[in-house]
Amino acid sequence: LKDYVVGLDIGGTKLAAGLFDLNLKEISFIKCDTEAFRGGQVVVENCKAIVHQVLEKSGISRDRVASIGISSPGPLDTHTGIVTYVETIGWKNVPIRSIMEEEFNVSVVLENDANAAALAENVRGAGEGTKNMIYITVSTGVGSGIILEKKLYRGSHDAAGEFGHICIVPGGRPCGCGNRGCLQSYASGTALANAARAGITAGENSAILLKAGGIPEKIHAFQVEEAAKENDAFAIKLWEEMGYHLGLGISILVQLFDPDRIVIGGGMSRAWDLFYGSMMESVRSNTYEVLSENLQVVPALLGDKAGVFGAATLGIAIV
Amino acid sequence: LKDYVVGLDIGGTKLAAGLFDLNLKEISFIKCDTEAFRGGQVVVENCKAIVHQVLEKSGISRDRVASIGISSPGPLDTHTGIVTYVETIGWKNVPIRSIMEEEFNVSVVLENDANAAALAENVRGAGEGTKNMIYITVSTGVGSGIILEKKLYRGSHDAAGEFGHICIVPGGRPCGCGNRGCLQSYASGTALANAARAGITAGENSAILLKAGGIPEKIHAFQVEEAAKENDAFAIKLWEEMGYHLGLGISILVQLFDPDRIVIGGGMSRAWDLFYGSMMESVRSNTYEVLSENLQVVPALLGDKAGVFGAATLGIAIV
Fold first, then answer.
1. What is the per-residue pLDDT across A31-40, written as a single tens digit (0 to 9) for each?
2. Which residue, among B243, B227, B229, B238, has the nearest Cα to B277 in the 3D structure?
3. Could you tell me the pLDDT band of residue B10, with boundaries at 50, 70 and 90?
4. N or C: which end of chain B has fewer CB atoms below 10 A?
5. Please, which residues have CB within 8 angstroms of residue A56's CB and are 6 or more apart in sequence?
6. Secondary structure class of B38 (helix, strand, coil)
7. CA-to-CA distance for B233 and A4, rounded, in angstroms?
8. Pairwise CA distance, residues A144 & A135, whole Å
9. Is A197 exposed, middle or buried (0-12, 13-18, 19+ CB in 10 A)?
10. B88 vs B104: CA distance, rounded Å
């Protein structure tokens, strides 16, 4: 009897794996360090090891596992099961699907992390019960996963949902992708830290600098969050600007997709109260009233576990 | 035997109707004036009349008609079959579906014009053979119809595809919809005429003015087209700016939907060579290279007949 699946979530700093029954009930769950600093081959070995460990922990025999779902950073090819290139974990053209298929002798499905998290939030998180839902992850960068008619929408070349790289300010800030004015350059952890650094270097008086040990180069988004929560005016303004730009992008999603709900996850979403007001104001002033009235924009519910849940959901789908 | 369908296309100036067999082969086709100036009730009567006429012309007996598909300007409700409000034809909450059902005693399906045209281009026009395709119509205003996995995507409230009203210039030009910076305010017939008028009033030297009888208020997009084709520098610049802004919007579609193909119809698309170059330059500088490389942006093929074809396709789908 093959009545369990494994969900594996590959992240830049952590790996996580869960064993689930076919109703997506969690049997066991573990996390470990990715150890990316030891190189791509070690990360591959760690992926194998954590799946072995989660099976051991559960006490379920290996031959009862029907499939493994994997959530990984991209770009990757869901058809070939190959992760094309991920600098943070030292992977270049790693055929992680066939590697895991060989190791565990089961079917394996590979999906990018934003899509896996979107699916998870739709199946059992903040998007439960919705038909058309867009999941946005805002952390160092910005990504999204699109659920239409309750199914993952991947586009024609597995590249749909590049929300972080839609142009929201024509000719605006240069972005790491080579283009200009991308949403990610205005509404991400990196953008927030950059804006704080630039402002402080230009003479803004803010508690952020002290939190960074007086060294502008060491300013990080979490210090901007701390300062804003302590009522630092400049930090509050930076979060409001982030909300404004994120709202601009969301308004575009709403006008094009007319979704039931937008779910926002990722590290930055934890500072919800610091950007929600300005974000919604911006959504409202750039969409049709009839659409923004019916729209729900809510924080993600699954946090760290979204990747594992989503991967397991995909695993169940191929059983 | 019910083996024919009627497609009815309701436009601001023209009505068109076609009789088709169930393989979408055209049996007969006619057009007439909408006569909107005579009021909404006359338009309703004209809709009934043109369907009667296309049947007479074909010689096919009325009881062989299985269904009628209708393409209409919106906003409208596909579920109730009611056209909510269309100023140009004097309609407010017109239950056109039940009116036609009563008149012809067959099932009727109602769809907005951009969606109907999108479907038509996908089934037998410039988008034939594609899986994910977006149809853009650029005329007085700008609209779009989204085909995903070969099916019309309508969104959660029948409001997806409001491409003309995504914000591409934050805080930019005021738009008729009440918001600012909408694509339609930069890349439509109205926008082109406005920009020509503003430039000429501010002293631009251009052949456009002469074509408008020396009266800036009378400048219309078609004069800007004529002037550009005669190498008028200012007119050429206006078309290039339109292409740039349309390209900005298309780049957003590409990053979010990753489609196989974009199909552009509507009156403005006939001036293809005047904006294609600047549009594609703008698409390329605002999308991932891997996406713009694979992307096809092509002119619509069905012209005036798209609405009738799309309506008939929807009619066939409910047989």
1. 999 999 999 9
2. B243
3. very high
4. N
5. none
6. helix
7. 69
8. 5
9. buried
10. 26
Instruction: Write down the residue that tokens 């407010």 correspond to.
Output: B92
Q: A265 vs A269, A305, B257, CA distance in Å?
A: 5, 11, 21
Comparing alpha-carbon positions, the chain B residue that sits nearest to A181 is: B286
Q: How far is CA A319 from CA A60, A69, A76, A100, B115, in A?
A: 17, 11, 22, 16, 37
The minimum CA-CA distance between A259 and chain B, rounded to whole Å, is 5
How far, CA to CA in Å, does B130 sit from each of B118, B146, B149, B303? 12, 12, 9, 19
What does the pLDDT average to over A255-280? 97
CA–CA separation, A121 and A312 (whole Å): 12
What's the pLDDT score for residue B22?
Answer: 96
Q: Taking Cα atoms as reference points, which of B265, B253, B246, B274 lies closest to residue B169?
A: B246
Contact B155 A253 (CB under 8 A): no
- Tell me the per-residue pLDDT of B106-130, one tens digit each, with 9 for 90 and over: 999 999 999 999 999 999 999 999 9
Q: Per the structure block, which two tokens stand in for A176?
A: 């790491």
A168 phi, psi to nearest 5 deg: -110, -15
Q: What is the pLDDT at residue B294?
A: 84
More confident residue, B193 or B294: B193
Candidates A158, A180, A257; nearest CB to B160:
A257
Q: What is the pLDDT of residue B290?
A: 81
What digits encode the pLDDT tens for the residues B201-253?
Answer: 999 999 999 999 999 999 999 999 999 999 999 999 999 999 999 999 999 99
Q: Residue B291's pLDDT is what?
A: 84
**Do residue B132 and residue A148 have CB atoms under 8 angstroms apart?**
no
Q: How far is B245 from chain A (nearest CA, A)?
A: 9
Q: Which two tokens stand for residue B100?
A: 């036609």
Residue B88 pLDDT class (50, 70, 90 cuts): confident
DSSP per-residue letters across B80-127: TTEEEEEGGGTEEEE-HHHHHHHHH-SEEEEEEHHHHHHHHHHHHSTT
Residue B167 has φ and ψ, to the nearest 5°, of -80, 115
Q: Contact at 8 Å (CB) between B148 and A155? A: no
Min Cα distance B145 → chain A (Å) is 10
Across chain B, mean pLDDT equals 96
- Alpha-carbon distance of A139 to B297, in angstroms, equals 33
Backbone angles phi, psi at A123, to 5 degrees: -80, -40
pLDDT mean over A196-206: 96
Report the number of secondary-structure helices (H) and strands (E) in chain B: 10, 13
Residues of chain B with pLDDT > 70, as a percent, come to 100
On the question of pLDDT at A289 being above 90, the answer is no
Q: For residue B174, is the peptide bond before it cis, meaning its omega torsion is within 30 degrees of 0?
A: no
Instruction: Note the residue count of chain A.
Output: 319
Task: Look at residue A291 in the predicted model and tell me its pLDDT.
Answer: 84
Q: Chain B partners of A156 at a C-beta cutoff of 8 Å? A: 131-132, 258-260, 294
Closest alpha carbon to A65 in A21, A30, A99: A21
pLDDT at A290: 81
